[in-house]
Amino acid sequence: RQTKALEELTVREQEVLQHILSGKSNREIAATLCITENTVKTHARNIYSKYDVHSRAELISNLLTGEDL
Q1: Is the Cα dihedral 62, 51, 59, 14 positive or negative?
Q2: Are the C-beta atoms of 32 and 20 separated by less than 8 Å?
Q3: In this predicted model, what pLDDT tens digit does every residue of 18-46 receive, in sequence order?
Q4: SS3 string of the chain?
Q5: Most confident of 3-7, 54-58, 60-64
Q6: How far apart, in whole angstroms, are the C-alpha atoms of residue 64 and residue 3?
Q7: Cα–Cα distance between 27 and 40 in angstroms, integer?
């Protein structure tokens, strides 16, 4: 399932995910990618939905521990 979810992410969602996993805040991600903070939040919500998680902490925990999503 994890691989399937990665395939379903858009290129921008993959970029946002990488920044989330590196510990950046929404504001930092927005500045790095030259998008608004609200756009980052939208991408994050889409990522959470695709991975069937409800928070950044849950997403990071599941991905870093290799749990099935």
Answers
A1: positive
A2: no
A3: 999 999 999 999 999 999 999 999 999 99
A4: CHHHHHHHCCHHHHHHHHHHHCCCCHHHHHHHHCCCHHHHHHHHHHHHHHHCCCCHHHHHHHHHHCCCC
A5: 54-58
A6: 14
A7: 8
Asked if 46 and 14 count as a contact pair (C-beta separation under 8 A), the reply is no
Q: Is the pLDDT of residue 2 over 70?
A: no
Task: Find the distance separating the first CA and the last CA of the chain, reported in whole Å.
Answer: 6
Task: Report the C-alpha gap between 45 and 38 in whole angstroms.
Answer: 11
Comparison of pLDDT for 36 and 7, the residue scoring more: 36
Angle at 23 between CA 17 and CA 26, to 5 degrees: 70
pTM comes to 0.83
